[in-house]
Amino acid sequence: MIPRMISLPIDRKSFFLLGPRQVGKSTLVQKVLEGKEHIAINLLLTDEFLKYKAEPSILRRELEYALKRMETITVFIDEIQRVPDLLNGIHYLLETHQGRFFFILTGSSARKLRRGSVNLLAGRAWELSLHPLTHIELGKKFSLDETLLKGSLPPLIQEEVRDAFRTLRAYTNTYLKEEILDEALVRNIPAFSRFLSIAADQSGNIVNYSTIARETGVNSKTVQGYYQILEDSLVALKLEPYLKSMRKRLVRHPKYYLFDLGVINSLTGRTSYEAIKTPTVYGRLFEHFIILEVFRILSSLAYDFQVYHWRSSHGAEVDLVVEKEGITWAIEIKSSANVRAQDLRGLKSFINDYPQVKPVCVSTAALPYQLGDITVIPWKMLFESDWLG
Question: Is residue 9 domain-resident?
Fold first, then answer.
């Protein structure tokens, strides 16, 4: 098992561990609980699902009976979103038997959970996220080109390219069936399927809801709802625009980044190394990779942070703005090793408006160098202690 960066508060706090399917939530929890007495409930199993779906109060009665023989009880419930009504009993147990229960609740959809318990236990459980593997977690197994093509979902790390994309096609079909159709989140499955392919193709671009609506065959409000489903189902990262300056007219639409590069490539038909080697495609995928990597690592390390994009009405743009613990970083992302001064015009425009920010350009260069007031660094340096780490 590849060690993960996230630290789980076992025996300290109840928590939700949320993340898309196949990122390794269940595997991680099972590994951490290995050799420790606990109660495990897997709601993917039909008999357990039907039992608790029919009468959620059974869980409370079972666990209160278990208190007769155990001083404290760790309870692992896998796929909690399948029976969100269980959260009412969990809430009661945490409130009534303080300090005696620790719940580990994994799930793939915050949307489904909030339908059952709007406040997700009102702060009595932390909300943690697990993501596809980062370059730090992969260590010597990491390959940039391989990640830009196949992504970094744990089951795909050892698979050959052909097999990986067969798995990814099944993955996206499963997502459509189980997360969308079975939960009746949308009625028009063909339209949503078309939207998902367009969302993959437009991943990382500023969203034009009207254009996507025309291509999908639905109205723009429906498209906004579709994007909300992706965000709530944890398969898209939303970057709001950074709007803290009144000096310029700024673009106010968000960007969405699908959560894994392999999923993006599968949906857009890029299934070979040759398909991603053109400068435009490679550059977009590299930008995706850096933005997702920043988000995954800061999230896994439990930093207090926010991520944004920035673009003026005149086209000046910064790929990523990160606010982290009182410091604002402006990050330009270039897949080339040789960055030119004119490539940094957007970044320079931004720091003219925000002179207090820390600007940096990440690239595929082997060594850092200076371009005026801006440092160009090898991309791995971004995650070291002198930068975002």
Answer: no
